[in-house]
Amino acid sequence: MAVYTQVSAEALSAFLARFDVGALVSAKGIAEGVENSNYLVDTTDARFILTLYEKRVAADDLPYFMALLDHLANAGNPVPPAIPDRDGRLIHELEGRPACLIQFLSGVSVTRPTPTQARAAAEAMGRMHASLSGFSLDRPNSMGVETWADQLARCGRDLDGIEAGLFDRLSSALDRILSRWPRHLATSAIHADLFPDNVLMLDDRVTGLIDFYFACTDIRAYDVAVMHGAWAFDGTGRVHDAEVGDALLAGYQSSFGLSDDERAALPILAEGAALRFLLSRAWDWLNTPADAMVTRKDPLAYLRRLDFYQTHGATIFA
Ligand SMILES: Nc1ncnc2c1ncn2[C@@H]1O[C@H](COP(=O)(O)OP(=O)(O)O)[C@@H](O)[C@H]1O
Ligand SMILES: N[C@@H](CCOP(=O)(O)O)C(=O)O
């Protein structure tokens, strides 16, 4: 579940009164998601998403995220911008939390993407990257390559409680990745977490790209690598779906494209992306009680991807 902060009907009505959005009809907590509290809000005028930002999203980063969404929406991408209040303000406070009222987008996220859906989603990422060439704000990647050594150290030998020998395996993987990291590649604003649950679709059409709260400036092709790891495997990371992976690369190629250098770097970028999600999941695994309201995501599903990319990366991205 992802409703950490309860919002009273009185507080929500008073909040909505700052906007030209009609009066409150209903509000329901949304179970999906892990980072923030989200509500589906219906008013007499329309439907909205109300997001209250919890501890993982720094309030200081919100202007960057909102500017990015605004830029992308203005360029015609299916992303949900924040709704301004009557004074033009996008970022508010509600129940003691930073909060935004966000445009509702229709569609559902797919759990087992088909090649056609993967292609459409990657095309949408390519169009998003094309739109971002003129976006000038910067946000360092708070989960980027420069942070992985610290993330590994803070998990430490507790990792061996998840799987015997895991700390040493990840230390070697990190050394390998750091020594090959393609720092020369083009950077841009990227989504950095475009998993299937962050893409809304109706049949084979992309209706929404959401959850930009890891967006940052980083190697642009790293976004493709993150997407590959998230889309082209089953949930356990045991089964690689080459058709989905190929469709994804073809989709991105058709709307934006990879240079020869970017394509050649995909194996190591994919290893890095696998390590990034492995580390964050491992930290959560070690620090979230098993009976917490939030479902812990399996870190080993990303160890399997890391192993796969080390062995087969050069072949599948050739
Ligand atoms: N703009 C939106 N339009 C429609 N549904 C949305 C929108 N934003 C979020 N949602 C719904 O809320 C869920 C959680 O949102 P998300 O941003 O992924 O949360 P979290 O940041 O907590 O992971 C999504 O899976 C989706 O169902
Ligand atoms: N995609 C990450 C976790 C981030 O969760 P999100 O709901 O904000 O996308 C993972 O699967 O480890």
Automatic annotation (TrEMBL):
Pathway: Amino-acid biosynthesis; L-threonine biosynthesis; L-threonine from L-aspartate: step 4/5. Transmembrane segments: none annotated. The keyword Transferase applies. GO terms for molecular function: homoserine kinase activity. Residues 27-253 form the Aminoglycoside phosphotransferase domain. The keyword Amino-acid biosynthesis applies. Its EC number is 2.7.1.39. PANTHER family: AMINOGLYCOSIDE PHOSPHOTRANSFERASE DOMAIN-CONTAINING PROTEIN, AMINOGLYCOSIDE PHOSPHOTRANSFERASE DOMAIN-CONTAINING PROTEIN-RELATED. Belongs to the pseudomonas-type ThrB family. This is Homoserine kinase.
